[in-house]
Amino acid sequence: MLQPDDNELIHRIALALIQRRERMATAESCTGGLIAAACTSLSGSSEWFERGVVSYSNQSKTELLGVPSALIELYGSVSAEVASHMARGLLAHAPVDWTLAVTGIAGPTGGSEGKPVGTVWLALARAGQPPKVWKELFAGDRHAVRMATVRAGLMALCEALEEKDL
Fold first, then answer.
1. Which pTM value belongs to this model?
2. pLDDT per residue over 101-112, tens digit each?
């Protein structure tokens, strides 16, 4: 499942978090816990990885992460607004410094003209800062979309952790 580059990213993330004495958590919809699984594939990850929440349904996004149901109704579960609230909600409920949230349409069903299969919103939040939210459009089948989402999220987290300005 994981590629060698993914393992390198996880090692870099682990090293950065350990050096900072910080911890992280994930809030995942379309990836179904694959980011958390990638992080916890590394022995000793309990030192820097706190938890992963799979919030696949809209109800779970509301109950577990505090995403307002009105927001989901207004923008849809695959949106910048929901991804941002997922990341901020987990940050508020978990003893962590960083959260990574993803919500998207992995396919092959569920896409629309405005939100085709492969549309994914990601949000990276750090305590005390507004989340970074961005959209990706990944090609391929369900597995390819999910794995591309895992890689994009891990890469963004790694880059943020390795920034000199933090």
1. 0.95
2. 999 999 999 889
